[in-house]
Design brief:
Blueprint: H1 17-28, H2 32-45, E1 50-56, E2 62-67, H3 74-79, H4 92-95, H5 107-113, E3 116-122, E4 129-135, E5 138-145, E6 150-156, H6 163-166, H7 172-189, E7 194-199, E8 202-207, H8 212-220, E9 228-234, E10 238-245, E11 257-261, E12 264-265, H9 269-277, E13 291-297, E14 302-303, E15 314-315, H10 318-336, H11 357-360, H12 394-404, H13 411-415, H14 421-432, E16 435-438, E17 442-446, E18 450-455, H15 456-472, E19 480-489, H16 492-507, E20 511-515, E21 519-525, H17 534-549, H18 556-568, H19 578-588, E22 604-608, H20 609-614
Parallel strand pairs: 1-7, 11-13
Antiparallel strand pairs: 1-2, 2-6, 3-4, 3-6, 4-5, 7-8, 9-10, 10-13, 11-12, 14-15, 16-17, 17-18, 18-22, 19-21, 20-21
Helix pairs in contact: 1-5, 2-7, 7-16, 9-10, 15-18, 15-19, 17-18
Length: 617
Amino acid sequence: MKQIGESGQSIIRTMPPELSNKIAAGEVIQRPASVAKELLDNAVDAGADRIRLIVQQAGRTLVQVIDNGCGMSESDARLCFERHATSKIESIEDLFRIRTMGFRGEAMASIASISQIEMKTKRYEDDAGTLIEIFGGEETRFEPAATDNGTSIAVRNLFYNVPARRQFLKTDATELKHIIRTFQNMALANTGIEFEMHADGDQLYQLPPQTLEQRVADLFGRQYRASLIPFEEETSYVRIHGLLADPKLAKKSRGEQFFFVNGRPFQHRYLSYVILSLFDAWTKQNEYPFYAIFLDMDPGQVDVNVHPAKMEVKFDDERSIIQLARSVVKKALNEYFVVPDPGRSGSFESDFDLTFDSLGSGNVQNRPEGRDRGEREPMQFPSRINYRQGNRPADGDESAEYLYGEPASPDAESTGDYQSDSEKQSAKTESEKGFWQLHNRYILTQTRTGLCVIDQHAAHKRIIYEKTLSSTEESLPGTQQLLFAQTVELSATDFALLEELLPIIQRMGFSIQLLSGNTAIINGVPADIDIGDERAVLRDMLHQYRDLDNKVKLEARDKVAIAFASRTAIPRGKRLAAQEMEMLIDQLFACSEPYMDPLQKPTLVYMSMDELKNRFR
């Protein structure tokens, strides 16, 4: 029954196009990377073999894609900004057999409603092209223009008329990281196309048509060239192929894991978990190796229309896809590390669901060189984190005095035990220096009224964090110059982040010079870093910072200090001598906040004698 308002008119009405487009934009256009994805998709669908992406201020002020594809006529140029206007599907049957990247006809109308667009396009057979300008969904200019074959679309001032959406954008480094990820997806899926990317006038990538192995090396670094593991298998249902990287190149943060189905990037949490779990025998906890996995299958067997941004897909036989991917990747790793695979027989298609238990329990001898987790280096405490006795904050002194001072009522009296003065003094000296390490992770020490258990990693993290913050406030931070400068090649996202954080990192004691081609030179490092570990420390710092950027809201200086402390702190599992444990505890209680690490997790747990006694009742 139709609902009628007080005036007798219907209260339900059709939304104006500009409003419906803004609502659609909220689903499809989440950030500048969403615009880059839609424009790159259209360029690929247009048959271009040369595509150029240009961004300014991480896409806030400009996202432009220039291609040499088929171009558009005058009528198509205007029609492409109409909602649900598309050349890619004509019937309901087409919707279930999609091979193009875009198909719904929402993207261009949505982008035009929240930005200022200038598009130039020309078909090969036309003498002149077409220029069209649309500001906030309103056409402001439409005329013939001289332009190259293909299409150039420039999207400026994204969300200029929706300021609430603009406020939700992250830092430039974060937004640029998402754009680069989008570019990498497109470049990996289309190795026969020449891609180019520029950000704020700098060329980040220049990729000619090449093999997948060459493209991976050009996108993620030359260190991948000799460490890639190709694989390929085909069944009657799906063809699966791609590349894995040697686990020794695994990184501390996600970002180099890719899935594609029929050339379309997609996300799948469970499949990601399954693939990453196969590397557990060769990687440490929270390390993420590179992989690019491609699925080629009948489009009718996969639904790509289940997510507004088209990042999720649904397979008709999802269980078989996951099982097959697991078996293929495990087989590739087994062959690469020469892990024996007994019980393997018959054709691959008939037994792809086999599990390879030998991988998870592989012999230590089969591990790559330098990956033995039980191997430990002798502990060394850097001199820069040693606090002078006279500079200890009052809080730390009071905490230490409370824990380790003379007990108010000796427990010996209550038990009736008798000790001579010399024996008491000897016991006191032994107690003051009594430190025990539990499973090479925790330090146990007797206090005046109970037991204190200290997490060695968390405690050292707090020490280095406070020292690092202190060094960033110094006018001339301490730096140890390297005898030979170290060159480090970074990914485009890591290089952009390093460029943003460079002033803070230099105040910590690093001496770094940025070069072209995502390369940096390390001339000096803080004294907290062992010589020879500079490259790994810098890379891990950037990965730790990016991980923190997604989890906590802190100032950049604090996050850099936490990332540095997390990387250089004593690892859990490191065996310490008694003197080292004593030194660590002294330094911890010299901190202004000894009870918590920089992320407010406890550094120690205290158990009183009463609590211990109650546990034995």
